[in-house]
Amino acid sequence: MASAELQGKYQKLAQEYSKLRAQNQVLKKGVVDEQANSAALKEQLKMKDQSLRKLQQEMDSLTFRNLQLAKRVELLQDELALSEPRGKKNKKSGESSSQLSQEQKTVFDEDLQKKIEENERLHIQFFEADEQHKHVEAELRSRLATLETEAAQHQAVVDGLTRKYMETIEKLQNDKAKLEVKSQTLEKEAKECRLRTEECQLQLKNLHEDLSGRLEESLSIINEKVPFNDTKYSQYNALNVPLHNRRHQLKMRDIAGQALAFVQDLVTALLNFHTYTEQRIQIFPVDSAIDTISPLNQKFSQYLHENASYVRPLEEGMLHLFESITEDTVTVLETTVKLKTFSEHLTSYICFLRKILPYQLKSLEEECESSLCTSALRARNLELSQDMKKMTAVFEKLQTYIALLALPSTEPDGLLRANYSSVLTNVGAALHGFHDIMKDISKHYSQKATIEHELPTATQKLITTNDCILSSVVALTNGAGKIASFFSNNLDYFIASLSYGPKAASGFISPLSAECMLQYKKKAAAYMKSLRKPLLESVPYEEALANRRILLSSTESREGLAQQVQQSLEKISKLEQEKEHWMLEAQLAKIKLEKENQRIADKLKNTSSGQLVRLAQENAAVSNAAGQDEATAKAVSEPIQSTSLVPDVESREDLIKNHYMARIVELTSQLQLADSKSVHFYAECRALSKRLALAEKSKEALTEEMKLASQNISRLQDELTTTKRSYEDQLSMMSDHLCSMNETLSKQREEIDTLKMSSKGNSKKNKSR
């Protein structure tokens, strides 16, 4: 088991490793792309640096030339200042020189104009380069910030992965230790099993040798001393008594007892259903106490009144079947003769159902035609009529299969043994169909009862009768469900028990052979019982010694004991004579008392109350004089007291009648209340059962989700163990790349600072110029 679990884990790890390897390749491609982008950025930075250096060199050359030109301009201005006073003196001589200086001035102005334009162009280029440099610097800084945040995130992920990796390593180490312990224990068990197998092989060899010797001996005995083998022919073998299977018989009796209890419940439910249906016909749609009901309903009520004569025999037949299954019999289909009587009783009940079915359908049609019937009630009545037809059909189907099962005990050729299992399965299907139809009847009748209760003309009698019918239908549904589930649970046992019969044969051939076999079984049991002679009771040695001592000590007083016994016998005879005498005296006193009581009762009718008291005193005196024992005195005084009261008989009977009538009314109301409560509780139980089924379904779904979640957790743990190394490699590469990027960025910052300083110096120089 441990090796299989390890192989499963290794297979999962290999699958996850292949997945992570594919993911690692994708990450490598992303890193290569980032490296290519960083290389391109580095080349762009180099090009920008070269262009900046060129521009700086041009600026330096231009500044140098500007300085030269400025010096030259200063020199020319000095020469011009010196030449102006001279020009005044020799204007004439200086005209030619002025023309020359004018030409030189124009040349210098043009050259200066060109230099100014070139300086402006350079200033513009420098400004554009500075702006572009600032833009690139901002982009690089934002890129650096994003890379730093990504590095921090990667570092956090790495820390979390390392923690999980360490936890998983600890768990795996613990699992490894447990598996090692299990492997050691399994190795020990394997060694013990090997030793046991060796011992068993030795025992098997010994047993084989012993059994082979016994077989040869038994074969020689059979060949020498068995003149006739009756198991060879099935007709003779059917007469052999099979081995007594007490467990099988007890199981069959237990099953028959359970079936009897279920049939009794079903019988009571059917009786209540037919009886309450009869009461409903007398109430709805026409109340028989107010008006006469239709002739159809009268006939239907008359037939329903006979339901007990058809339903009760079902219980009796099942009871006889249960009583026929005892511990001493052999219970198979060939020996269950009482099943035929149960089948006949079921046939008579089905005839009763066929007889009342047309009247029931016509009664429902009459209810539909009445003015009180609504469309919804009419629909429910139609559904109930269809359900009643289905119920009768299901009972007929069930009776057909039970009659087939009863054939092997009466007509052996009526049903083949190969068809027993199919008939039993069909019985189970018919019982389940009966349960389904009863559920439909219960549903439709409850809907019908609710609709009728909402009618304005619904009386309390109708409501209570509907509740009673509904409770009986619910009881029928429960009984049918119990019988169907009971039969389906024991169906395999029924099919397996069909092979129970004579040894080395297919079974009993005919009911006559089965009956002969049972007679032989009884004779064999009686013979075995006669062989068991009871042992005589013996007295233990110590008790015998004690009794001997007592006898030796009591021999001396034997004569005295004999005299005491004789005296006690004489006393007993005297007491019996006295007892007879006093019994005769008591009878005489009783006769006198009755005569006196009769005489006093006759006189009380014609005398006053005072004379009544005087006569009672005389009667008491006579009775005290006649009685000589306490028992006779008590017997005399009690009738005097009873005669002296003289209660009013009619008023007492009225009181008792009123009391019992009130009690009956109270009990009927309590019974109706209990029935309504039972219906309510049944509805609540159905709702609770539905909730329970939904809760069980949700529980199953949650358990499946828990299994999937546990599988996902194990898979993620395996992924963590396999991806940690790849993440570590990638993070080391990323850290190296970030270090290189930081170095390049520091260099770029330094170059940018130098460029800024140089640009500031150039701008100051240009401003000064």
UniProtKB/TrEMBL annotation:
Residues 84-104, 749-769 are annotated as: Disordered. Residues 3-72, 137-196, 558-592, 685-726 form a coiled coil. InterPro entries: PPP1R21 (IPR040024), PPP1R21_C (IPR049372), PPP1R21_N (IPR019343), PPP1R21_six_helix (IPR019348). It is found in: Early endosome. The lineage of its organism: Eukaryota, Metazoa, Chordata, Craniata, Vertebrata. GO terms for cellular component: early endosome. This is Protein phosphatase 1 regulatory subunit 21. GO terms for molecular function: RNA binding. Residues 95-104 have a biased composition (Low complexity). It comes from the Eukaryota. Residues 11-112 form the Protein phosphatase 1 regulatory subunit 21 N-terminal domain. Keywords: Coiled coil, Endosome, RNA-binding. The keyword Protease does not apply.
